[in-house]
Amino acid sequence: MYIFLIEGEAMLEVVFSDSEKGSMKVAKNYNAKTMLGGAIGYIGKKPTKAELGKHFEGQAIGGNSQDVVNIGFSLDIGDISGEIDGHERQNIFRKLWGRFEVDNKEQERFFRNQRKDMEKLLSAAKDGIPIRIWKSNTPYSACGFHFVCHLLKNIDCDIRVVSLPEYKPISENEIAEYNHWGEVAAGKFYQFLSLEKQLTKIEKRIIGDRWHDLMVENAPLRAIINGKLTSVPENFYDFIIMNNLPDSDFIMARLIGKLLGEYRLGISDSWYALRIEKMIKENKLIVVEEKDPSHPYGKVVRKV
């Protein structure tokens, strides 16, 4: 059984990254015919019309595509003791963006949009508009969920939660594995509506209080340990990097790609890059060559 919105009923969808927001905006009014009618790129053999149709088949979850917010503050990383988009938090993002060409105007636009989405969420809660949170078990999503519960702790509001399962059966012999909602095709979100659950007042209070405890602890990182969001040290993921260092010279980008593909922990490539740079500064690794200075991860590196 799927739960669909009654026409005209508003529902604010809450996600925790820009890619998830983009997919959700499409999912609200998904139309397979429109998707098929657009420009389609493919690699290798051109798919048949039937194959394309199967790829784009799906349904809308209903509502207005503007009723989507991204509470994407990357709260698993850095200082969370102060304002959620204050100077400390903005400095975290600038650190993560350090290798990319993100000019001041783009940065300001990003922070402005973050604040706008948070205020939209608050307004919806106060106005009695139902809120549906799409959370996964990645650290950034779990942190976002805890933060939202803390933000809305004193507002009597209707909150529903859809938790992303680790996998979803497709057929008798096939399953789809998921790490975060950004991996779910826009036309497939409706398939998860049956997992929607009401968040009770006591659950909201407990989860919100946990975020308060994490704010007080204010560790460099937050991670999921045994299903619980936990404060951890800055070097928490370093053992993964160290265990995967090849004996020969390697390009930073290839190592980061391997870590992202094999471990699927919901950690950003930028964080791995920061830790590798730290290891270079600590003389655990040495830079052999700047193979591609234009690429943010173009260094050739070697174990000491």
From TrEMBL:
Matches recorded under InterPro entries: DUF1835, DUF3658
Residue ranges occupied by any DUF1835 domain in the UniProt entry: 66-163
Top-level taxon of the source organism: Bacteria
Chain ranges passing through the membrane: none
DUF3658 domain location: 193-291
Entry-linked Pfam families: DUF1835, DUF3658
Protein name: DUF1835 domain-containing protein
